[in-house]
Amino acid sequence: MLSSQGSIFQAEISRIIGQGDQGADLQGYPCKKRKIMEIGTALFETLKHLCSVLNKAQSAYCLIGGLAVGILAKPRATEDIDLLMLMGEDSVESLRKLLRHHFDVIQDHDIMHFRNCTIWRIVVSDSFPEDNGLVIVDIVFADREVYKNALADTICLEIDDTVIPVVRPEHLIEIKRLSGRPVDLLDIQALQDAEKMMD
Fold this sequence. Notes:
Elements: E1 2-5, E2 8-12, E3 15-17, E4 35-40, H1 41-56, E5 61-64, H2 65-72, E6 80-85, H3 92-102, E7 105-113, E8 118-125, E9 134-141, H4 145-151, E10 154-159, E11 162-167, H5 169-179, H6 182-198
């Protein structure tokens, strides 16, 4: 469900999907209809469109990064979509074809190698009809044990009839410790504070 608030929209969880798709609340996680974040319309619509495409393709992925922090802890400014995916450089071409079929892809050739991760950066036109903006999608390859563990244990949320798998906070903390950037350290603190409030 979306409720307008100027140029910002509030996303609400309509269902938390438990194991076996029972829809049961998961202890320590948002309950039904909890407002989870305020994000720009274009970013939110692109996230839903992207998840819908990946779900239909039965891709193994989950949301990480600033949007995941917004769901699990507290909203924070972010301008991109970060996904963790079970893939490597050898499977880039098939995903490139899938995305080009469903999105207006502006750029999809940047594969960046860092000490603790490999990221494929894609730039697409956003999925909001009234906008002509761009959205950056960073895909982190799940090529390390910490990433594979995160993908094997996610929270699945249903927002506006779109299932969005989200990393669990304990795994997101581990992932952010690998980076160690100032913003990641702030995110870790926010995630830990949110967990304390739920105890």
